From TrEMBL:
<feature type="domain" description="WsaF N-terminal">
    <location>
        <begin position="409"/>
        <end position="553"/>
    </location>
</feature>
<dbReference type="Pfam" id="PF22772">
    <property type="entry name" value="WsaF_C"/>
</dbReference>
<dbReference type="InterPro" id="IPR055050">
    <property type="entry name" value="WsaF_C"/>
</dbReference>
<protein>
    <recommendedName>
        <fullName>Glycosyltransferase 2-like domain-containing protein</fullName>
    </recommendedName>
</protein>
<dbReference type="InterPro" id="IPR029044">
    <property type="entry name" value="Nucleotide-diphossugar_trans"/>
</dbReference>
<feature type="domain" description="WsaF C-terminal">
    <location>
        <begin position="598"/>
        <end position="729"/>
    </location>
</feature>
<dbReference type="GO" id="GO:0030247">
    <property type="term" value="F:polysaccharide binding"/>
</dbReference>
<dbReference type="Pfam" id="PF21374">
    <property type="entry name" value="WsaF_N"/>
</dbReference>
<dbReference type="InterPro" id="IPR048510">
    <property type="entry name" value="WsaF_N"/>
</dbReference>
């Protein structure tokens, strides 16, 4: 009898600053598997540990491929890169006659049972299953002490949730799963996200459940090591809720929390349905294997509440109380979504439409609106509350509690949600992080928008400072100033404002609450009054320049502009820094050769007047017409803020991607040929510089005394008119590819490097805060 050849299993592992002893123990457990046909795909997510992995794998005689990264990768992007590499290796390591290869995932510091892979292969002999996973033991940092015999029991996981049930709470842990390669082929690329809102195991589980099925191996096949640097770690999620008492009752924060969870579930449901549809269309998936129907409650434009209510009742009846609460929360949000839609359609929307029609009607004859009866004025005209007409961004919505042990720099930013963060906020974050690294306590406060997830926001913020030490991270705190009624503070705190309204907020807090520091730091990133027509916002922005503050200018260009406008604080000795752009990161990226139509990227933000969106559209239209281009020649894409697609001449369609995830943006530019990025203000916006450093020939506009073409020949600067910009686009279209020398952009003519500016700011803050200088500043 001939023995069947065992399938090859490619094991994808993300490696990020591992403890060598832990990594060795994990690799040893992989090497000792009873299923011998295995190959490790190690993604070096920290850019440092490649030699360590290769040496250990060679010592253990473990076949290994290391995938080096040119930037730090979070767990999700590392696994995504590893899956791509694993699929690429399959035709190299297997023959067409070999059994179907499989893919398993592994953490870097756990310990596998000897039959972890063999049990996975056996479970997948059920032809219907696409992915299997198992239970695990929770062990201590030493890998020996058993903290809990079952992760499933500890976390009260549902053992066999439906496809829809995975979106209430994922029960799959990536380091226990084994799957068919087809799951990865359909799942890649992962749906984009800004920060980490979902993990790879949930997305893979959704695809597997919707294309065949997920199976649970009823055994503890992994010892899951718990320590202080777990990416996620095991959590008893139900216990806290059951003991929360009154805190578990619905309030504003509860609604926002449930809405954020529901939004993620809805996003992943739509992404899964769309991905499966695409996979059927392009042949990756037979039509009969697609079963996304259980996702339907998430896909409906309205309603969907009923199924969540039924799920909640069923889960409660079977003893899954925490999951029942989640399903009930989803029902509440789905109902709220429908009611809000109806209110907008039949309430304010209806009133507004009727009033607009009547206004036109009465303008014909007699020219005046009929005056309502006195007793009907309130009902008919619906007086507004006065506070709806006041700009709440200028007003503190929290009370400072002076209970902090030491003063801190309090950085006021509009938002801390990664999806809402643009370059100006990033600059403020980088300044705050730089000061934390220099020994200062730093408190980031979101002043305009509630914080959706403190954990996600904190992870995003800390990743802005590669190599941050635990001591520096401990000096950083994040707070929601919108819904938090109180905030920890110290009398000697110093505020840092990042926009005119947060300057008003800092000034108000200082005056009303008796802070000893009467001056605050004001990061001036543009001449903000010109963002508005003459009126209240223009006046308030101008008024902010009359407060008592320490100015810090984003570029000498802006400082010089303020000086020309007669502002006495804009003197040459005031701190000015050049754009905080990592030129080396963009310039080092390897360009991807264009196949087919050339890609042109427009920095499109219709709601932001200074980005001149309509001028950009007009310039694109003139350029396409002048060059006689069609869809076979050019693919224009808009990034920045999402907007409707735009039909351009020649059958060319401009599609909008909205805001690209921060992590994906540099790579996207490496596949872009031309750029159009406008900014009608003294501030040199980041995109033209980032595009040029990435090898994109980019067109932008002049502004008095601002000419970005002086930075690099890859930047073409034209008059801010559609015809001049179209002519510059034609010049860029016919130019040679951008050279390496053109990508090496020197920004020092615009001010100090951010690090040097932060050093000097730290010295000034030390004097302001009346504290001893941190050790590195003495």
């Amino acid at each position: 009898m001939t023995q069947t050849k065992p399938p090859l299993i490619l094991i994808v592992m993300a490696v990020y600053r591992p403890q060598p002893a832990h990594l060795r123990a994990q690799l040893a457990s992989i090497a000792a598997q009873s299923h011998r046909a295995r190959h490790l795909v190690a993604v070096i997510a920290d850019m440092l540990s490649g030699d360590l992995v290769r040496d250990l794998a060679a010592e253990l005689d473990l076949p290994c491929t290391c995938l080096e990264s040119d930037t730090d990768l979070d767990a999700v992007r590392a696994v995504e890169a590893g899956l791509v590499q694993a699929l690429d290796l399959i035709p190299v390591l297997t023959a067409p006659s070999d059994p179907e290869p499989l893919i398993a995932l592994s953490d870097q510091d756990d310990i596998w049972q000897d039959d972890r892979l063999a049990r996975g292969v056996a479970a997948l002999s059920n032809k219907g299953l696409q992915l299997v996973h198992s239970d695990a033991r929770l062990v201590g940092p030493d890998g020996c002490a058993v903290w809990h015999a079952s992760m499933f029991r500890f976390e009260r996981r549902h053992r066999h949730p439906s496809l829809r049930g995975l979106l209430y709470r994922n029960n799959i842990t990536g380091m226990t799963l084994t799957m068919r390669a087809r799951v990865a082929r359909v799942a890649l690329p992962f749906p984009p996200q800004s920060g980490v809102h979902y993990y790879h195991d949930l997305w893979l589980g959704l695809i597997a459940a919707a294309t065949g099925g997920v199976g649970l191996i009823d055994a503890k096949l992994v010892d899951y090591r718990q320590h202080g640097t777990n990416a996620v770690g095991a959590v008893d999620r139900q216990k806290g809720w059951l003991r929360a008492g009154k805190r578990a009752l619905p309030d504003g924060m509860w609604i926002r929390h449930e809405a954020a969870a529901y939004a993620l579930a809805r996003y992943l449901a739509h992404s899964a349905r769309n991905r499966i549809s695409d996979a059927v269309g392009d042949g990756r998936l037979p039509a009969g294997d697609a079963h996304p129907d259980p996702l339907r409650p998430y896909l409906r434009r309205t309603c969907g509440m009923g199924q969540h209510v039924r799920d909640s009742a069923k889960l409660a009846f079977t003893g899954h109380l925490a999951l029942a609460r989640i399903a009930a929360g989803f029902a509440v949000v789905a109902l709220g979504r429908t009611l809000w839609t109806l209110r907008e359609a039949l309430g304010p929307g209806l009133d507004k439409a009727i009033s607009a029609f009547d206004t036109r009607l009465y303008s014909m004859s007699p020219g005046l609106f009929p005056k309502p009866a006195r007793d009907a004025i309130e009902q008919t005209l619906k007086p507004l509350d006065h506070d709806t007409l006041i700009d709440l961004r200028k007003i503190s919505r929290w009370q400072p509690l002076f209970d902090a042990p030491a003063p801190a720099l309090t950085v006021l930013v509009p938002t801390l949600n990664p999806t809402e963060i643009f370059a100006g906020i990033v600059t403020a974050l980088d300044i705050g992080l730089g000061l934390a690294a220099r020994g200062f306590r730093v408190r980031f406060v979101a002043t305009d928008l509630p914080v959706s997830s403190v954990a996600v926001s904190r992870s995003f913020v800390l990743k802005r400072l590669p190599g941050i030490t635990p001591e520096a991270a401990a000096r950083i705190s994040l707070h929601c100033g919108v819904q938090g009624r109180t905030l920890s503070a110290h009398r000697d705190d110093v505020f840092l404002s990042t926009a005119w309204w947060s300057a008003h907020l800092a000034d108000t807090l200082i005056r009303e609450h008796g802070y000893t520091q009467e001056r605050f730091v004001y990061i001036l990133q543009d001449f903000e009054p010109n963002f508005y027509a003459w009126g209240p916002e223009y006046a308030d922005a101008m008024a902010s320049y009359g407060f008592d503050f320490e100015p810090v200018f984003n570029t000498t260009l802006l400082r010089d502009y303020f000086a020309r406008q007669g502002f006495g604080f804009a003197t040459p000795d005031r701190l000015a820094f050049h754009p905080a752009i990592d030129i080396a990161r963009y310039a080092a990226g390897v360009r991807r050769e264009t196949i087919g139509p050339r890609r042109l990227v427009l920095y499109g933000r219709p709601e932001v007047a200074r980005n001149m969106y309509t001028t950009g559209i007009e310039a694109l239209s003139l350029f396409i017409t002048a060059e006689g281009l069609g869809a076979q020649d050019i693919t224009p894409v808009s990034i920045g803020l999402h907007h409707d697609p735009v039909r351009l001449p020649g059958g060319v369609l401009l599609e909008s991607l909205g805001k690209l995830p921060w992590e994906a943006y540099p790579g996207y530019l490496l596949g872009t040929d031309l750029g159009l990025s406008l900014m009608y203000s003294p501030h040199p916006s980041h995109p033209p510089i980032e595009m040029a450093a990435s090898g994109v020939r980019v067109v932008t506009n002049h502004f008095p005394q601002k000419d970005l073409s002086l930075l690099s020949p890859a930047i073409l600067s034209a008059k801010p008119t559609a015809r001049a910009l179209a002519a510059a686009l034609s010049q860029a279209w016919h130019s040679d590819p951008v050279t390496a020398a053109e990508r090496a952009i020197d920004l020092t003519s615009m001010g100090l490097p951010l690090e040097e500016m932060v050093d000097r700011l730290a010295e000034r803050l030390t004097r302001l805060m009346r504290t001893e200088a941190p050790d590195n500043l003495r």
